[in-house]
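Sorry, explain these tokens?

___
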Amino acid sequence: MLISQDTWCKFAIKQVDHEARFKWYHMNIFSRWIPSTNQTVVLAFDLDQPWRDRFLKAVMARDPNWLGDPFWVYPALVEQVARAQEPCVWGIRDHVRGLETEGKPDGRPQPDYRRLHDISRHAIHVNETLDVTIQNLEDILMHHENYMSAQIGDLPYSEDIHLRLRSFLSFVTNLRFRSISNEKRLQNEVQLAFNTVAQHDASVTLEIGRATQLDSATMKTIAFVTLTFLPPTFICAIFSMSFFDFGGDSGWTMSNQFWIYWVFAIPTTILTTLIWTFWPDIRRMVFPKKD
């Protein structure tokens, strides 16, 4: 003989406003049904406003015939859960729609990645709470079916309770499909933001490459002009030194001290080449980096 039947369930809901601020709501319900007197003890934990008053009002307005079923309290509870979940889904949809309708900015795109991340996180949590709600509803329906199959006789009020629970399961499942769509649309917006920035950066890189090609062509021209005039300039510099004399009756003469030029020029050239070659090592030795 059944003396009492206890049930326990918990639902979590995350609501997000237009500023992407969020708040968690929890619904923990314990019920004990006593068949001998058709009495039900309901304990509600962590039930915030306005769901507390709505749940109490819905429970008090139930059909008295339902009191013969231990699950009579759950249609009222699930109704409040479904009503609380619906604005959560549409709130995420509003954020996604706002992202979709934003115009393309002038210049380099500056996506708010922090905002995209927060909305994605909220969408994932809403999906999670809907999954948990659906799982709880399926478990409640399964236990209610077991209760109904164990009863003898026709129980129309139990059939009514069962149908209402199934209708709410269908409603929450539809919300789950909408929430999945929101998450996919949000993923498209995140991908679009990355691709837009990458496309803009690629166009800038292409322009830099073109400018570099122009600079390279200019440097080649300068190098060609330099190489063209460097040998004559060197010859002019040599013959303009005082080691050579083109005047007087003696004609063209060269000083016997011309070797001094090579004594200074050759070592200086070699020293300059060595310094240029080993300058990175010299810089590390002379200017060591401080940790």
About this structure: The first helix runs from residue 51 to 60.
